[in-house]
Design a protein that fits this description.
Layout: H1 3-29, H2 38-57, H3 59-71, H4 74-99, H5 103-127, H6 129-142, E1 151-154, H7 156-161, H8 163-170, E2 176-180, H9 181-191, H10 196-215, E3 220-223, H11 233-244, E4 247-250, H12 253-261, E5 266-268, H13 269-275, E6 285-293, E7 300-303, E8 309-313, E9 321-332, E10 337-343
Parallel strand pairs: 1-2, 1-4, 2-3, 4-5, 8-10
Antiparallel strand pairs: 6-7, 6-9, 7-8, 9-10
């Protein structure tokens, strides 16, 4: 016998039992010569209704619940269950004193507190699940080490730059990004600037920060920590990082230098971008599109996909054309990497002059 039939028969028997129980008071209320059959009739009606609606009250609701549970991420289920347990524990501790209240309050408030605290527990744990799971991972990985080792103070320049969102999306940052309140205030001040360029940069930074809080797998924390008696944001970041023993993420060259001089670990997004650029060696061929003139006579300038500048000798004739070039030397500067090259001979398939 299939499970469907077992459920249908079980619901039919339950309906018949309920119908039988309903027919007994009808016998006492409506006394006729047929009153002895009331229980039988209501039992048959209950069995019939149970057989018709058995699947609607058993299988279909269960399938709907199963489908809904499958769509919910596992981390939400775990944190929600923990929040439910915490809420029930709190309500259980309050149940005894609430039950001592006089009259109806003592009967109703224990149940109300259980519902309220369970709902609050589930809501709180699900809303803060990223922070909670991040904290658990840090504790598990460090086995009791200081949580500050995993904190990274974020400078305004990194937020405005925007590449931090893509870096966080890759999962390379395992710690917690801490945005102090004074950094957020500086970002808001830039967003309110009368200068259009500064205002757009500030608004972009606020959008990036919102994106990080909403979509990033990396934990983001807005901290109220501050340094008394100091007005400059860079000085506050350096002193705060030194007190906490954590790193600073920045694109600011001056802040980068000052922090390193004081022994503070610095994560520079520009240095990371330079480190992951394509490595080319003298003599290697490249395909590049010349888009403008160079500083020296006859030079043309193009760019690789990662933004690396390619200076092509005698490349001015090939502006707005794709050409094959040979790398002659690679120069590493503070601003980034520059590649010097020369156009291959015409026999190698380079584009002709304009």
């Amino acid at each position: 016998m299939s499970l469907e039939w077992v459920l249908r028969i079980s619901v039919m028997l339950l309906g018949a039992l309920l119908g039988w129980q309903l027919g007994r008071p009808l016998q006492d209320l409506l006394v006729t010569r047929y009153s002895g059959y009331y229980s039988v009739v209501t039992a048959l009606i209950g069995a019939a209704l149970g057989g018709i609606f058995a699947l609607d009250v058993t299988v279909r609701p269960l399938n709907a619940v199963r489908m809904r549970i499958r769509q919910i991420p596992a981390r939400y289920l775990v944190t929600g269950l923990v929040g439910l347990v915490v809420g029930l524990i709190i309500s259980a501790l309050l149940a005894l004193p609430l039950s001592l209240l006089p009259g109806l309050l003592g009967e109703v408030l224990p149940f109300v507190s259980a519902v309220v605290f369970s709902t609050l527990g589930i809501t709180t744990m699900v809303m803060r699940e990223k922070d909670i799971l991040s904290m658990v991972r840090r504790l598990a990985s460090r086995e009791g080490a200081s949580a500050q080792d995993e904190m990274i103070l974020v400078d305004t320049s990194v937020i405005i730059d925007g590449r931090i969102a893509d870096i966080c999306a890759t999962g390379f940052i395992s710690g917690t990004l801490v945005v102090p309140r004074f950094v957020l205030n500086e970002l808001q001040h830039i967003a309110d600037s009368p200068d259009v360029l500064r205002r757009n940069r500030g608004r972009r930074g606020l959008e990036i920060l919102g994106r990080l809080q909403k979509d990033s797998e990396t934990s983001i924390e807005i901290s109220e920590m501050d340094v008394e008696g100091v007005r400059e944001v860079d000085t506050k970041l350096v002193r705060l990082a030194r007190e906490m023993g954590c790193a600073i993420m920045t694109n600011d060259y001056n802040l980068n230098s000052v922090a390193k001089l004081q022994g503070i670990k610095v994560l520079n997004v520009n240095e990371l971008a330079n480190a992951v650029k394509v490595v080319v060696l003298p003599g290697e061929p490249l395909s590049v599109r010349i888009i403008q003139e160079g500083k020296e006579a006859g030079q043309g300038v193009g760019y690789l996909d990662d933004g690396t500048m390619v200076v092509v000798e005698d490349g001015r004739r090939y502006i707005d054309q794709d050409v094959e070039v040979l790398v002659t030397r690679v120069l590493q500067t503070v601003a980034g990497r520059m590649i010097f090259a020369q156009v291959e001979s015409k026999g190698s398939g380079a584009a002709g002059p304009r």
